[in-house]
Amino acid sequence: MPLTLQPTHRRRWLWLLAALLVGGLAVPAWRHLFPVTAAAGWDYRVYQQGISRVSALALDGKGGLYVSQEALDGRGTILLLAADGQRREVLGGLSKPDGQAMFRGGLVTGQEEGPGPVLWLHDGQRSVLFQADSVEGIAADGRYVYAIEDKTSGGRLLRYDADSGTLEVLRSGLIEGEGVSLCDDGRLFYVEKAKGWVKQWQANGVDRLVVDGLNQPGFVQCTADGLWITEDATHMARLLLVDPTGRLQVILRHLRSAQTIIPVDSSRYLVAEQGRDRILEINRQSMDP
């Protein structure tokens, strides 16, 4: 004989199912909508918004900001945001442009979607520096351009010598290499997102582990404050700082797919938050009473 629920019991079961459904949806909704929070001594504001797929940032040295839009299939672009807020496209037809650095008066950018050229935009002209595969992170000094490949296996850390035109493989066999940063003192750091760690490259081949156990680390940036790290997680991502003493600090929480961080001056930084199509400005608060 089939089991039949009485009306009172049926209503109770329906209320229970509804409560479970609402509770199950509440957790992802909370993670999605919870606002960014800053650590003591820091605050933030929205610097620019409404920039779809915002990823890499670079200051042009003239008051403008280069911004990459990480779209696929040749739909990616590089925008220049002028000091007055106006935006114009300066480079198009790219496939997931990601990683940017100023180099010899121009902009270097990589493309993450498969094999392709690392490009140099200078004097309004577009030049190919070298070929690589799935380049995400870019760093540069006056002579070298460093690039890291974001591949599920066999990624490389590369160094291009602009004087000789030669390309050197500094590391191979990387898994989801994303960020690379060069310090003023010559130290070189890189990220393997799938491993959840940041390492310092060593010429002897045994790289030093800086920090591990991170939630999808993406970009790194070396500054006087220490080593900045962003997490590329869809929810609950953080902006981290390894200070000069080696202490790991959480500066921002509840980010969505944080990407590049760059310094504006000694107390201000810009952070691309791709998951919300915006750029944040973070500021060290004054300690004056």
From TrEMBL:
Name the SUPFAM superfamilies for this protein.
Calcium-dependent phosphotriesterase
Q: Which InterPro entries match?
A: 6-blade_b-propeller_TolB-like (IPR011042), TAT_signal (IPR006311)
Name recorded for this polypeptide? Strictosidine synthase conserved region domain-containing protein
Give the taxonomic lineage as stored in the record: Bacteria, Pseudomonadati, Pseudomonadota, Gammaproteobacteria, Pseudomonadales
